[in-house]
């Protein structure tokens, strides 16, 4: 219990801009930008100043409108995107050394051993023409496994865990429904036992009963494996079900953070209030 | 008796930005709750009763004042300024909250709902199942309902499930937010018996009741709230 109050992941002042910026927009002041876009030079400030902490076994919700920088933040954390500025440190990696400053090779190592990622679009996370089980093997090989029998067993166990029938595991995910593809992605992300799972809009576009399956699976993973997760969603109901704490993003900034029920019942920021009052 | 919860000059107002309005819900509330005591809060609708409970549970951020809770893990802690992570811990292990609404994961049956409360606090599956079974029997939730989803439970059944879920963790402090609202007289009496039982087991409780007559004889103290103020 002593580690209860020490964060496992710390993100500080993460910034990601697309474009070089000009004298007009470089200070990122709201009066010089339109939302997160510079009208003079066309630079987009997708994440301006994002800082938060993630604790062990916790699910952190990230909500915000389209274009608020949620996915960019996730892609930065998974090293899909090069950050412009900021630091990220993991307690279990080199005593909290900034991982953004590591070499590409080290980043690959971190990605394959410390993180699991589930993208909104399964095409990003899966090779659609490899079989489901090969997709899992791909991640296991990347993490350094070489024993085929062990990988095959692990793959079968994981796919069974996410309710993919055994007789379909040799089929490529392109034959699967959206919900199944999402579950294969989750199995793949879990394959290397990562301490942190990044989930980007995993239930968006799934029908309600499949959505309930996926939510149930996520909750089960949290309970049984004690994995910390960052769950990005624009669906407040999903975040309410899953997350202990929630941060609200707007135009590349975190404008509010708190316990999930407090964000929903007593929102402080004008935008959060608008968002919560829009809830059906 | 030692104090478990002390509220000092609690005020809460809501700022609604879209209409540029400030709503004052609670003003300068102070009282304390001893260990093993049961205090009932009474008052009209909209007088700010729930606000107090929600400020204690941190569903609302208090605007002013302090709420000191004597935690087993952290010692004396101010619920207004405690870290979110500490509140998460307290909610999981020490403080229970029961409202008239049941908020659960979709497609989870009654037994699983109670069981999961224990699994979440790191208990094993066998122990959790055993305790969940015990408490549902104890609260007389019909056994034929255990494997069904609570969507079509009656108000009284939902409430008993809700209380069972909060109680199975044996919280040091139980907050009851109008648990008897929308129940018929027979169910209300059932809840009363339940609360009497909890009290005799030593649970400290703070409850809101619309119709306090039902709780007479069970409450150690009554607190009257009117227009956000203590009477």
TrEMBL record, chain B:
Its EC number is 2.7.8.37. It holds the Pfam family ABC_tran. This is Alpha-D-ribose 1-methylphosphonate 5-triphosphate synthase subunit PhnL. Keywords: ATP-binding, Nucleotide-binding, Transferase. InterPro entries: AAA+_ATPase, ABC_transporter-like_ATP-bd, P-loop_NTPase. It comes from bioreactor metagenome. GO terms for molecular function: alpha-D-ribose 1-methylphosphonate 5-triphosphate synthase activity; ATP binding; ATP hydrolysis activity. It is an enzyme of class 2 (transferase). Residues 5-231 form the ABC transporter domain. Belongs to the ABC transporter superfamily. The keyword Nucleus does not apply.
């Amino acid at each position: 219990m002593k580690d209860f109050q020490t964060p496992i992941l710390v993100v500080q002042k993460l910034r990601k801009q697309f474009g070089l910026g000009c004298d007009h927009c470089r200070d990122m002041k709201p009066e010089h930008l339109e939302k997160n876009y510079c009208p003079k030079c066309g630079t987009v400030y997708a994440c301006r100043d994002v800082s938060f902490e993630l604790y062990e076994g916790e699910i952190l919700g990230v909500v915000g409108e389209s274009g608020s920088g949620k996915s960019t933040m996730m892609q930065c954390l998974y090293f899909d995107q090069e950050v412009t500025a900021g630091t990220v440190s993991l307690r279990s990696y080199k005593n909290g050394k900034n991982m953004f400053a590591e070499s590409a090779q080290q980043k690959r190592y971190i990605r394959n051993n410390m993180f699991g990622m589930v993208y909104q679009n399964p095409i990003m996370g899966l090779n659609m023409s490899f079989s489901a089980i090969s997709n899992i093997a791909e991640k296991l090989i990347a993490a350094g496994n070489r024993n085929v029998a062990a990988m095959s067993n692990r793959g079968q166990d994981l796919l069974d865990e996410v309710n993919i029938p055994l007789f379909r595991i040799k089929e490529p995910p392109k034959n699967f429904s959206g919900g199944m593809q999402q579950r294969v992605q989750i199995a793949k992300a879990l394959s290397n036992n990562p301490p942190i799972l990044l989930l980007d809009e995993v239930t968006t576009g799934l029908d309600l009963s499949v959505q309930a399956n996926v939510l149930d699976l996520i909750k089960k993973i949290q309970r049984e494996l004690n994995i910390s997760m960052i769950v990005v969603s624009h669906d407040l109901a999903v975040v309410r079900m899953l997350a202990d704490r929630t941060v609200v993003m707007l135009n590349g900034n975190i404008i509010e953070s708190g316990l999930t029920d407090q964000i929903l019942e007593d929102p402080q920021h004008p935008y959060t209030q608008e968002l919560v009052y829009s809830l059906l | 008796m030692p104090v478990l919860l002390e509220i000092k000059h609690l005020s809460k107002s809501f700022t609604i930005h879209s209409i540029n309005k400030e709503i004052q819900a609670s003003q300068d509330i102070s009282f304390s709750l001893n260990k093993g005591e049961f205090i009932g809060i009474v008052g009209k609708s909209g007088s700010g009763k729930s606000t107090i409970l929600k400020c204690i549970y941190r569903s609302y951020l208090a605007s002013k004042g302090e709420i000191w809770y004597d935690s087993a893990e952290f010692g004396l802690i101010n619920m207004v300024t405690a870290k979110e992570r500490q509140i998460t811990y307290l909610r999981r292990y020490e403080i229970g909250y029961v409202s008239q609404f049941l908020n659960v994961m979709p497609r989870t049956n009654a037994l699983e709902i109670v069981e999961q409360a224990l699994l979440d606090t790191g208990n094993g599956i066998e122990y959790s199942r055993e305790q969940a079974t015990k408490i549902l029997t104890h609260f007389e939730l019909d056994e034929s309902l255990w494997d069904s989803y609570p969507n079509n439970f009656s108000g009284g059944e939902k409430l008993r499930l809700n209380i069972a879920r909060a109680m199975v963790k044996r919280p040091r402090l139980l907050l009851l937010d109008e648990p008897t609202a929308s129940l018929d007289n027979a169910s209300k009496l059932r809840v009363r018996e339940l609360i009497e039982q909890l009290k005799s087991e030593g649970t400290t409780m703070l409850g809101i009741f619309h119709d306090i007559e039902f709780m007479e004889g069970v409450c150690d103290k009554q607190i009257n709230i009117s227009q956000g103020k203590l009477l």
